[in-house]
Design brief:
By secondary structure, the protein is an alpha/beta fold. 34% of the residues lie in helices and 14% in strands. The protein contains twelve helices and ten strands. A hairpin with a 4-residue loop joins strand 8 and strand 9.
Length: 346
């Protein structure tokens, strides 16, 4: 890939660390005790700067972004710069009037659902009643014609519910279902022993491939599972399957497993810029230097784009351009973001 190939297509902007839930895997360690750091001007100045060169989809996330009073003002400002806006919410604060506001100001919403029942989801989210409120939000979105997707995170405690969660996402009217393979950062680092095993990871990705072949109604994709892109090729070749990957209109637009620092970026609630939301290290801070300077010039972002700098197995692998391994997972396990992805089975 040439440097010109690395256009910013998608950025997650963490506008608050505050959250009304206490999820076991939260990368932010979000809580209601934390305070917002970035002002409206900090955020809009960064949007202005990004708009000089790129027009990515900007996803407002947290924490719980709906806890920020100016969330819709921020969304309107982003849209005024010619960018589409997503909202990543846990759904528990959504009622009919809030949904109407979302419809007016937001282009697409993601809801977090980590199980097909309240017992599984609420155990993951550490708040009783969270599941019912999120399902209610989905029903309101469907009634109002609001496009929404479902993000589902999995560990050993809910991995046996993966297929049921996928079916539930379809049933409630989601336009897409994203299956997240958790990277142990934030509170996720405290549940290392709960992470899905490498053997099960491979089985789950193969299940997803064959499920995707039959799935025509909604868009499906594993997230933080770059090996899936190798699995698709391996399984298709082995079984002489004609496989064509579909793209969601709000996706990163890149047919590659890990796009961290290549097509996507993450700005956390303190203004730290990272290649992705699970990445442990900061490449710079928007309060100290401009986003574009960090995007183009930071060592971390340059390393992410130089595939020759990756470990030997990755850099010489025929799937380097479609997989690339999870750089955040490599760093979390080995303290080196250029190391082998510990979940690599290719």
């Amino acid at each position: 890939m040439m440097e010109t190939d690395f256009d910013l297509k998608w950025v997650a902007f963490e506008i608050t660390p505050r959250c009304n839930l206490d999820c076991i895997h939260c990368r932010t360690n979000a809580s209601m005790q934390l305070k917002d750091v970035l002002t409206f001007k900090n955020i809009t100045d960064t949007i202005d700067e990004i708009a000089k060169e790129f027009k990515p989809v900007v996803v407002l996330t947290g924490g719980e972004p709906l806890l920020r009073n100016d969330v819709f003002e921020i969304a309107d400002y982003i849209r005024a710069q010619g960018m589409r806006v997503g909202l990543a919410t846990n759904g528990t604060l959504v009622d009919y009037s809030k949904a109407l506001e979302i419809k007016r100001h937001i282009d697409i919403v993601s809801l977090s659902i980590d199980g097909s029942s309240s017992s599984i989801h609420d155990d993951f989210r550490h708040i009783n009643g969270a599941f019912d409120k999120t399902i209610k939000a989905a029903s309101i979105f469907k009634e109002l014609g609001i496009n929404f997707i479902v993000n589902s995170s999995f560990t050993k405690r809910n991995q046996n519910d993966i297929e049921n969660t996928y079916r539930l996402s379809k049933k409630i009217g989601a336009s897409a279902w994203y299956m997240f393979m958790i990277v142990p950062t934030g509170r996720g680092a405290d549940i290392n022993d709960e992470l899905i095993s490498k053997t099960d990871y491979e089985k789950i990705l193969k299940w997803h491939f064959y499920m995707e072949l039959k799935e025509k109604d909604i868009f499906v994709r594993p997230t933080c599972a770059p090996e899936y892109y190798a699995v698709c090729d391996i399984e298709a070749r082995k079984n002489n399957i004609d496989y064509t990957r579909r793209n969601l209109s709000f996706s990163t637009g890149g047919a590659k497993g890990c796009l961290a620092g290549q097509k996507i970026a993450f700005i956390n609630y303190e203004g730290n810029v990272k290649p992705c939301s699970y990445f442990l290290r900061d490449a710079g801070n928007i309060l100290e230097k401009g986003f574009l300077d960090i995007w183009h010039n930071s060592k971390i972002f340059k390393d992410m784009r130089n595939f020759n700098s990756y470990n030997k197995k990755c850099s010489t692998c025929k799937y380097i351009n479609v997989c690339g391994g999870c750089r955040a997972r490599a760093d979390a396990y080995y303290g080196d973001y250029l190391a082998i992805d510990p979940y690599c089975f290719v």
